[in-house]
Amino acid sequence: MTKYSFPPLINSSSKILILGSLPGEESLKQVQYYAHPRNVFWKIMFTVFNETYSEDYSIKCELLLKNHIALWDMVHSGNRKGSLDSDIKNEIPNNIEGLLKEYQGISKILLNGKKAEAMYKRYFKQIPVNTITLPSTSPANARLNFEDKLNFWKEALSF
């Protein structure tokens, strides 16, 4: 089954671009980035920026934009049964280079997990932007606890 990513969450003040792989089932259903209740992406963002957590998606998006963070996915479209990154097949990448040309203030790219890293290396290794791979915030990544993930992300999100 072919699945599609969302448009980028970005504005002209964005300095950091976070790239995931492809929205999972719950995210597609809710039309929201990182909508799975056990994905700790939003909890990490609110904690890093010392803000009170909110379930309101517009507040979540506002939090990123006011802190100069953009959000997108590596995959424009791809086939996947379920939500596991390892099941993504026949992917077509998003136009990351075009996005970076349009938003030239982006000076750092954070890759959310190993699948995003593998795709980035396959399609975009020539992009001359500081790139950091971080532990996936997905519940499928049970290797690290919340505090460990938080510490990696906190360090990478510093300007």
Number of strands: 7
Strand order of the largest sheet: 3-2-6-7
Number of helices: 6
Q: Mean of the pLDDT scores?
A: 94
Q: N-to-C SSE series?
A: EEHHHEEEHEHEH
Major sheet summary line: 4 strands, parallel
Task: Extract low-pLDDT stretches.
Answer: none
Kindly provide the radius of gyration, computed on alpha-carbon positions and rounded to a whole number of angstroms. Answer: 14 Å
Would you mind describing this structure in some detail?
Helix content is 33%, strand content 21%. The protein has 159 residues and is α/β, with parallel strands linked by helices. Helix 5 (114-124) links the parallel strand 6 (108-112) and strand 7 (130-134). Helix 2 packs across helix 6. It is globular and about 40 Å long.
Features:
159 residues; alpha/beta; 4-stranded parallel sheet; 3-stranded antiparallel sheet; 6 helices; 33% helix; 21% strand; globular
Question: Brief description of this entry?
Answer:
The protein has 159 residues and is α/β, with parallel strands linked by helices. The protein contains six helices and seven strands, in the order ββαααβββαβαβα. Strand 6 (108-112), helix 5 (114-124) and strand 7 form a beta-alpha-beta unit.
Map the helices and strands.
Blueprint: E1 2-4, E2 16-20, H1 25-30, H2 41-48, H3 57-66, E3 69-73, E4 75-79, E5 89-93, H4 96-102, E6 108-112, H5 114-124, E7 130-134, H6 146-156
Parallel strand pairs: 2-3, 2-6, 6-7
Antiparallel strand pairs: 1-4, 4-5
Helix pairs in contact: 2-6
